Structures are given as C-alpha cells and as structure tokens.
Amino acid sequence: MGSKYLLTAQELASISGANLSKIKNYFGFENQKNPKLSSAQVHEFMKKSGFKYTCRSLAFINLKGGVGKTTAAITLASRAVQFGFKTCILDLDAQGSATLALDYTLEEDDQIFHNIWQTPKEINNALIEMEENFFLLPSDLENSLLDVSLNNPASQKKAVKGIINELKNLKFDLILIDCPPSLGAAVISSICAVDEIIIPVANDAFSFKGIELTIEEVGEIRSTFGLSRSKTKILSNMVDKRLNLAKEYEQKLKKKFGKYLMPCCIRTSSDFSKALEKRETVFANNRKSNGKMDYDLVARTIFGLGKK
Ligand SMILES: Nc1ncnc2c1ncn2[C@@H]1O[C@H](COP(=O)(O)OP(=O)(O)O)[C@@H](O)[C@H]1O
Ligand SMILES: [Mg+2]
Q1: Rounded to whole angstroms, how far apart are CA atoms 291 and 283?
Q2: Does 308 fall in a domain?
Q3: Is 276 in the pocket of ligand 1 (CB under 6 A)?
C-alpha cells in the first residue's frame, strides 16, 4: 500500500514548532535534505511535542449542490492524514462522489452506511483502508434508500451517532462526513451527531439562500432533538479575487454571517479539477499550488496548528 499523503520534515517543523534538524535527528534522517514522513511518524512526533489528538467529528453540509462539500471533505481528510490524524471519511451521499474522487470502486460484499447503521459495530469491517491512517466508508446508490429505512426521528438521532461512537472506540482522531445536498435522513442524522458543521459556500449570487436555509435547518433540527447548538462554520469557496463582485460577496457574507465565517477562504483554482482527474487530492503532489496553500491554512485553522 503506497502512501500518497506524506508530510515533509520541513512541514512538520512548521506545524510542530520544532526545528528541522531536531526532527531529522529524531527519525535518523540526518543525511536527507527534506525527508518525507508517514502519518504515524508525524502522529508520534506531534504527540511528543505536546499536541493532543482528541477525536472530532465534522460534517460538510449545504442544501445546495456543487459548492465544494466533497472537495472540502476529501482535501481536508488528506491533509489531516499528513498531519498525523487517524482519519475516516463517511461518504453518505448516494452519488458516491467522495468514494469516486478517492478512486475506490465498490466490490460486491462491501458495506455502506445503509447496511450498517442498525449494527454500528460492523463499521470496523466496513471501512476501507486507503492508506495508513486514511479510511473510507464508501457509498453507492443504495444509500438513497436511507430516506425509507431511516425514517423515524429516534433512529435518525442515533444512526450516525452510533457509528461515531464506535469510531471513537477504534481510536480515530478525526471523522469527516460528506453529506448529500438535501435534507434527507443522512443529513438530519449527521446534524444530530457531529461536533461541528462546516458549510462550504460558492462565492456567487445564489449562495446566500443556501446558507440561510442550511443554518436555519441545522438550528431547528438540533432544537427539535433537544441537542445543544453545534459549532457551525462557513467556508467561503471558489473565491476569485480578480473579480470586483467577489469582494462584494465577501463583504455581504461578513455582514450577514460574520459570526460563522471562517477567517480563511478557498480561491477558485484548476488544481481541484486536475486532482479529481487523477482521483487524488491536491496534497498528493509536491508542487506548490494555490489549492494546497488555501486548504493547508484551513486545516491549520481547524486543528489549531502552527501559526502562519
Ligand atoms: N475552489 C474551487 N475552485 C475550482 N473548482 C472547485 C473548487 N472547489 C470545488 N471545485 C469543483 O467544483 C465541483 C463541485 O465540487 P464538489 O466538491 O463536488 O461540490 P458538492 O460536493 O458541494 O456538490 C467539482 O468539480 C470540484 O472539483
Ligand atoms: Mg458532494
């Protein structure tokens, strides 16, 4: 199993605050200029430096499609793996975009969320190990039956929660849920279960309605189920800084949803479609790119790592 998502010693220096020679020394890589480290090596070093990997669950939700939910989920997941997190993506979208984007093709006896939500212990067998510390619960069209099988509020409250609890037992550090663009059972169940919700938004005139609706629904669902308010963040995506309109939207976003808005954004970039073409994320290659730079900052912001 070759690893695509390794971290360079230099990057580890930047997130840990330790100096490069100390890191090379620690791993016995004194002779290499900028060695690459596995997720487990990064995990070990970060822990030694005092970083705490406490399990977090995040869902990417927007009732609108095409805003970058899947891209955000897989790109952040791959960065988290590089940062040493034992990471799992739950693909709950019947379209299976995250599964496809990570180059996984389902086999006959693979399990998806629809088959296991009633027996969460099965998640252990259902997970596909993409590489060290990088796991996927794949999805296919059968997940669209969820709206029929997971149709009562009590089960909706428990379904995703049950899986997350099991993943905590399995010592995962990060659980990311890629949701479909609807308000079906999978989304309601995710809203009930996760610590944090990230709403990616495209930087255009049609986005505001989507944000408003999503925030409203999240609030209503959490209160209907008697849950405390979740942490909700808006991630501004597809920002084209050359356009005056982009500045206008950014201002509007700040004014209307300022308290939710993340302090960093993702620029429009062809890096994402190029990565998708290769069924990998922007972090699989060594080149510098805007897509990488932006998601690196988003990841550092979310995980509270290294100042930029
Ligand atoms: N910042 C970006 N710049 C350019 N294209 C992007 C960006 N973010 C996402 N995309 C592209 O937009 C399309 C829709 O993104 P996707 O993540 O599938 O959205 P969703 O999951 O919300 O439907 C994909 O082709 C993706 O590669
Ligand atoms: Mg998607």
Answers
A1: 9
A2: no
A3: yes
Domain that holds residue 21: 1-49
pLDDT tens for each residue of 193-239: 999 999 999 988 788 888 999 999 999 999 999 998 889 999 999 99
Residues 72 and 214 in one domain: yes
- In the DSSP assignment, the letter for residue 150 is S
Minimal-distance CA residue to ligand 1 atom 16: 68
CA distance 261 to 18: 31
Question: For ligand 1, is residue 207 a contact (CB within 6 Å)?
Answer: no
Q: How many angstroms from the chain centroid is the CA of residue 84?
A: 14
Pairwise CA distance, residues 5 & 48, whole Å: 21
Pocket test for ligand 1, best of 63, 64, 71 (most atoms within 8 A of CB): 71
Largest CA distance in the chain: 60
Same domain, 28 and 63: no
Q: What is the rounded CA–CA span in Å between residue 308 and residue 306?
A: 6
Measured in Å, residue 66 CA sits from the centre of ligand 1 at 6
For residues 75 and 117, membership in a common domain is answered with yes
| Residue recorded with tokens 């405390």 | 228
Pick the residue whose CA is nearest to atom 6 on ligand 1.
272
Query: What digits encode the pLDDT tens for the residues 35-52?
Result: 999 999 999 999 999 999
Give residue 162 CA to ligand 2 midpoint distance, Å: 23
pLDDT of residue 307: 62
Closest C-alpha to ligand 1, atom 13: 66
Give dist(CA 236, CA 191) in Å, integer: 20
Ligand 1 atom at minimal distance to the Cα of residue 200: 22
User: Do 59 and 44 sit in the same domain of this protein?
Assistant: no
| Number of structural domains in the chain | 2
Q: Decide whether any atom of ligand 1 lies within 6 Å of the 71 Cβ.
A: yes
pTM strictly above 0.90: yes
Q: Provide CB contacts within 8 A for 48, sequence distance 6+.
A: none
